[in-house]
């Protein structure tokens, strides 16, 4: 599990692509992808990365749009990536009857 900003992209995720962006970098990558806005601390508590969240929500591409934040937590190999992938497939294919 990623415990700090340096480990953010160690999750695996919704696709085979790697997204190299965090609040520590100057410019975000211009591709859609997950961004960790909650940091898991060593004492198992969470810390909000306000810088990363502000860069997302205040960017010109997103500023005037509706935004939904989804957080999924749980043990290893319990379906978190499946659930996120399922929701993304539904979101991108709402017009299609055969989206599943």
Automatic annotation (TrEMBL):
Instruction: Read off the Gene3D superfamilies from this record.
Output: P-loop containing nucleotide triphosphate hydrolases
The answer on whether this UniProt entry bears the keyword Nucleotide-binding reads yes
Annotated Pfam families: GBP
- Family (UniProt): Belongs to the TRAFAC class dynamin-like GTPase superfamily. GB1/RHD3 GTPase family.
| Protein name (record) | ATL1 isoform 3
Lineage of the species this protein comes from: Eukaryota, Metazoa, Chordata, Craniata, Vertebrata
Region Disordered, annotated ranges: 1-26
Q: Which GO terms describe its molecular function?
A: GTP binding; GTPase activity
Q: What keywords tag this UniProt record?
A: GTP-binding, Nucleotide-binding
Source species: Pan troglodytes
């Amino acid at each position: 599990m990623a415990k700090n900003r340096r480990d953010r992209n160690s999750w695996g995720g919704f696709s085979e692509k790697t997204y190299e962006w965090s609040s520590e970098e100057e410019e975000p990558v211009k591709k859609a992808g997950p961004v960790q806005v909650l940091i898991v601390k060593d004492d198992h508590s969470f810390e909000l990365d306000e810088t990363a969240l502000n860069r997302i929500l205040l960017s010109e591409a997103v500023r005037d749009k509706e935004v939904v934040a989804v957080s999924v937590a749980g043990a290893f190999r319990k379906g978190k990536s499946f659930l996120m992938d399922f929701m993304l497939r539904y979101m991108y294919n709402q017009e299609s009857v055969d989206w599943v």
